[in-house]
DNA-binding transcriptional regulator, AcrR family (Fontibacillus panacisegetis), 188 residues
Amino acid sequence: MSPRAGIDIHIVMKVVINIADQHGAGAVTIASVAKELGIKSPSLYNHISGLDELKKKLAIYAMDELHHYIAQAVKGKNGEAAIHDFAISYISYAREHPGLYEATQFAPEGEDAEINEASYRIVSLVMDLLQSYHLPQKQALHTIRGLRSLVHGFATLERQGGFRIPLDLQESLEYNLELFLKGLSYYS
Protein backbone atom coordinates (compact mmCIF):
# COMPACT_ATOMS: atom_id res chain seq x y z
CA MET A 1 0.00 0.00 0.00
CA SER A 2 1.48 3.36 -0.94
CA PRO A 3 1.03 6.56 1.06
CA ARG A 4 -1.82 8.84 -0.03
CA ALA A 5 -0.68 11.47 -2.51
CA GLY A 6 0.00 14.84 -0.93
CA ILE A 7 0.50 13.51 2.58
CA ASP A 8 3.99 13.18 3.99
CA ILE A 9 5.53 13.29 7.46
CA HIS A 10 5.71 17.10 7.36
CA ILE A 11 1.97 17.39 6.73
CA VAL A 12 1.30 14.78 9.40
CA MET A 13 3.38 16.76 11.91
CA LYS A 14 1.63 20.04 11.06
CA VAL A 15 -1.63 18.34 11.96
CA VAL A 16 -0.15 16.84 15.14
CA ILE A 17 1.21 20.25 16.24
CA ASN A 18 -2.11 21.93 15.51
CA ILE A 19 -4.10 19.33 17.46
CA ALA A 20 -1.75 19.63 20.45
CA ASP A 21 -1.74 23.42 20.37
CA GLN A 22 -5.53 23.65 20.07
CA HIS A 23 -6.70 20.74 22.23
CA GLY A 24 -3.73 19.55 24.31
CA ALA A 25 -1.08 16.91 23.81
CA GLY A 26 -3.46 14.24 25.10
CA ALA A 27 -5.76 14.89 22.13
CA VAL A 28 -3.06 13.65 19.75
CA THR A 29 -4.10 10.13 18.84
CA ILE A 30 -3.80 8.05 15.71
CA ALA A 31 -7.54 8.47 15.19
CA SER A 32 -7.56 12.27 15.68
CA VAL A 33 -4.63 12.79 13.33
CA ALA A 34 -6.10 10.49 10.67
CA LYS A 35 -9.46 12.24 10.94
CA GLU A 36 -7.84 15.68 10.44
CA LEU A 37 -5.95 14.34 7.43
CA GLY A 38 -9.11 12.80 5.98
CA ILE A 39 -7.65 9.28 5.95
CA LYS A 40 -8.37 6.05 7.78
CA SER A 41 -6.24 5.34 10.86
CA PRO A 42 -4.36 2.38 9.34
CA SER A 43 -3.25 4.64 6.46
CA LEU A 44 -1.35 6.83 8.92
CA TYR A 45 1.08 3.95 9.48
CA ASN A 46 2.40 4.60 5.97
CA HIS A 47 3.97 7.73 7.45
CA ILE A 48 4.78 6.83 11.07
CA SER A 49 5.46 3.74 13.14
CA GLY A 50 2.88 4.56 15.79
CA LEU A 51 1.64 6.93 18.47
CA ASP A 52 4.94 6.90 20.36
CA GLU A 53 6.73 8.23 17.29
CA LEU A 54 4.16 11.02 16.92
CA LYS A 55 4.52 11.96 20.59
CA LYS A 56 8.30 11.87 20.38
CA LYS A 57 8.38 14.10 17.29
CA LEU A 58 5.88 16.45 18.93
CA ALA A 59 7.98 16.61 22.12
CA ILE A 60 11.15 17.42 20.19
CA TYR A 61 9.34 20.08 18.18
CA ALA A 62 7.87 21.63 21.34
CA MET A 63 11.22 21.58 23.18
CA ASP A 64 12.92 23.22 20.21
CA GLU A 65 10.20 25.88 20.10
CA LEU A 66 10.47 26.47 23.86
CA HIS A 67 14.26 26.78 23.55
CA HIS A 68 13.92 29.28 20.70
CA TYR A 69 11.28 31.28 22.58
CA ILE A 70 13.46 31.50 25.70
CA ALA A 71 16.67 32.18 23.76
CA GLN A 72 15.04 35.19 22.11
CA ALA A 73 13.88 36.54 25.48
CA VAL A 74 17.31 36.28 27.14
CA LYS A 75 19.49 37.23 24.20
CA GLY A 76 22.33 39.50 25.36
CA LYS A 77 21.35 39.26 29.03
CA ASN A 78 23.08 37.69 32.02
CA GLY A 79 22.78 37.47 35.77
CA GLU A 80 19.50 38.23 37.49
CA ALA A 81 17.94 39.81 34.41
CA ALA A 82 18.64 36.70 32.35
CA ILE A 83 17.27 34.28 34.95
CA HIS A 84 14.22 36.49 35.49
CA ASP A 85 13.52 36.73 31.76
CA PHE A 86 14.10 32.98 31.35
CA ALA A 87 11.38 32.29 33.92
CA ILE A 88 8.94 34.83 32.52
CA SER A 89 9.40 33.62 28.94
CA TYR A 90 9.15 29.96 30.02
CA ILE A 91 5.80 30.59 31.69
CA SER A 92 4.65 32.80 28.81
CA TYR A 93 5.32 29.94 26.40
CA ALA A 94 3.32 27.57 28.63
CA ARG A 95 0.45 30.09 28.71
CA GLU A 96 0.46 30.73 24.96
CA HIS A 97 0.94 27.10 23.91
CA PRO A 98 -0.40 24.90 26.72
CA GLY A 99 -0.70 21.78 24.55
CA LEU A 100 2.78 22.14 23.12
CA TYR A 101 4.15 22.88 26.57
CA GLU A 102 2.45 19.72 27.82
CA ALA A 103 4.23 17.82 25.04
CA THR A 104 7.65 18.97 26.34
CA GLN A 105 7.11 16.66 29.29
CA PHE A 106 6.92 13.50 27.16
CA ALA A 107 9.33 10.88 28.43
CA PRO A 108 9.46 7.67 26.40
CA GLU A 109 10.27 4.38 28.03
CA GLY A 110 14.02 4.03 28.36
CA GLU A 111 16.65 6.44 27.12
CA ASP A 112 16.07 8.35 23.92
CA ALA A 113 19.01 10.26 22.44
CA GLU A 114 16.88 12.74 20.46
CA ILE A 115 14.66 13.61 23.42
CA ASN A 116 17.73 13.95 25.65
CA GLU A 117 19.44 16.20 23.09
CA ALA A 118 16.42 18.49 22.77
CA SER A 119 16.08 18.68 26.54
CA TYR A 120 19.78 19.31 27.02
CA ARG A 121 19.65 22.36 24.72
CA ILE A 122 17.41 24.05 27.28
CA VAL A 123 19.61 22.94 30.18
CA SER A 124 22.69 24.20 28.34
CA LEU A 125 21.01 27.55 27.75
CA VAL A 126 20.32 27.93 31.47
CA MET A 127 23.88 26.83 32.30
CA ASP A 128 25.09 29.71 30.13
CA LEU A 129 22.75 32.11 31.93
CA LEU A 130 24.16 31.01 35.28
CA GLN A 131 27.81 31.64 34.33
CA SER A 132 27.90 35.04 36.01
CA TYR A 133 27.16 33.31 39.33
CA HIS A 134 30.38 31.24 39.08
CA LEU A 135 28.70 28.11 40.42
CA PRO A 136 30.45 24.75 40.29
CA GLN A 137 28.75 22.49 37.72
CA LYS A 138 27.03 20.31 40.30
CA GLN A 139 25.60 23.34 42.11
CA ALA A 140 24.55 24.88 38.78
CA LEU A 141 22.65 21.70 37.91
CA HIS A 142 20.91 21.73 41.31
CA THR A 143 20.01 25.37 40.62
CA ILE A 144 18.56 24.47 37.23
CA ARG A 145 16.43 21.78 38.85
CA GLY A 146 15.15 24.29 41.39
CA LEU A 147 14.40 26.88 38.72
CA ARG A 148 12.67 24.32 36.54
CA SER A 149 10.61 23.17 39.51
CA LEU A 150 9.56 26.75 40.16
CA VAL A 151 8.56 27.59 36.58
CA HIS A 152 7.10 24.20 35.65
CA GLY A 153 5.19 23.97 38.90
CA PHE A 154 3.83 27.48 38.50
CA ALA A 155 2.88 26.95 34.85
CA THR A 156 1.22 23.61 35.58
CA LEU A 157 -0.72 24.79 38.62
CA GLU A 158 -1.87 27.88 36.75
CA ARG A 159 -3.01 25.83 33.74
CA GLN A 160 -4.90 23.40 35.96
CA GLY A 161 -6.62 26.16 37.94
CA GLY A 162 -4.65 25.39 41.08
CA PHE A 163 -4.34 29.02 42.19
CA ARG A 164 -7.82 29.76 43.48
CA ILE A 165 -7.05 32.48 46.02
CA PRO A 166 -7.90 35.85 44.45
CA LEU A 167 -4.36 37.15 44.27
CA ASP A 168 -2.62 38.48 41.17
CA LEU A 169 -0.75 35.58 39.52
CA GLN A 170 1.92 37.73 37.94
CA GLU A 171 2.62 39.33 41.32
CA SER A 172 2.96 35.85 42.87
CA LEU A 173 5.32 34.79 40.10
CA GLU A 174 7.49 37.91 40.47
CA TYR A 175 7.58 37.49 44.26
CA ASN A 176 8.73 33.88 44.02
CA LEU A 177 11.29 34.67 41.35
CA GLU A 178 12.71 37.38 43.61
CA LEU A 179 12.99 34.85 46.45
CA PHE A 180 14.74 32.41 44.15
CA LEU A 181 17.15 35.06 42.84
CA LYS A 182 17.98 36.30 46.35
CA GLY A 183 18.71 32.74 47.39
CA LEU A 184 20.85 32.22 44.32
CA SER A 185 22.88 35.36 44.98
CA TYR A 186 23.39 34.23 48.58
CA TYR A 187 24.98 30.96 47.48
CA SER A 188 27.07 32.33 44.64
